Amino acid sequence: MTQAMEVVRVPALSDNYIWLLHEPKSGKTAVVDPAEAQPVTAALSQRGWNLDYIFNTHHHFDHTGGNLQLKKQFNGLQVVGPQADADRIPGIDIQVKDGDTWKFGSLEMRVFDTPGHTRGHITYWLPEAKALFPGDTLFALGCGRLFEGDPRTMWSSLSKLLPLPADTQVYCAHEYTQSNAKFAVTVDPNNTALQERKERIDDARSRGEPTVPSLLGEEFATNPFLRPSDVGIRSALKVDNSVPDWEVFGKIRAAKDRF
Questions:
Q1: Which of 21, 84, 93, 257 has the maximal Cβ count within 10 Å?
Q2: Positions marked catalytic
Q3: How far is CA 217 from CA 44, 59, 183, 191, in A?
């Protein structure tokens, strides 16, 4: 939680995280990517919150499965989602696109188009709350599979996140971190910060603790999918400095797909 916004993790399905956002000045509450309705309504009733908005990052059912049920349960609830994929977002009311700013209560929310995992994926950033909601574009130590995009597209999407502040909290949508860490050390074997992070992740998971959110600065330092220009990673992949970053990113993604 920051003073600007309270964020509640709501586990769902096998490894999804739904995020409840509460903006205390206005009393507005939103949910990011509700995979299913029941755990959301339980978390809301526990806190005495109403639900005003759904923020969808993309159309996959494990991110939108609760949309229509929640719209039935909460009068006036509005679904915010990607303009580029509006026809696949159940119950969409408000369409947003790259460069848009939108007010969540008193907070400004900025939108990035981040296609690659799907053709219409978006990412939400709330600067004052230091919070990033990248859906399945960026994970802790990972990135989403390229179901509807190619490496050049996905690297362009991830590159939009590189200028953001290092103290931003990354609220990704899945608990994939331990498996991502096992892969990351194979392509970045000499990264001490990565090795130390992997140990912390293994410890946390052995106790059943979540590893999300993560700090964006940690991702900059240890997530191989954000570091295709790194000399050590290029050496491990046997590519030289002449190869463009997007192509190295593609090699990292292909290696993960085979891992």
A1: 21
A2: 58, 60, 62-63, 117, 136, 174
A3: 31, 28, 20, 15
**Residue 188: phi, psi to the nearest 5?**
-135, 60
Preceding peptide of 244 cis, ω within 30°:
no
Q: Rounded to whole angstroms, how far apart are CA atoms 259 and 69?
A: 37
Query: Structure pTM?
Result: 0.96
What is the C-alpha separation between 191 and 151, in angstroms, rounded? 24
81 token code pair: 């989602």
Which candidate, 184, 173, 96, places its Cα nearest to that of 138? 173
Question: pLDDT averaged over consecutive 10-residue blocks of the chain (259 residues)?
Answer: 85 94 97 97 97 96 94 97 97 98 96 96 97 97 96 98 98 96 97 97 96 98 98 95 96 95
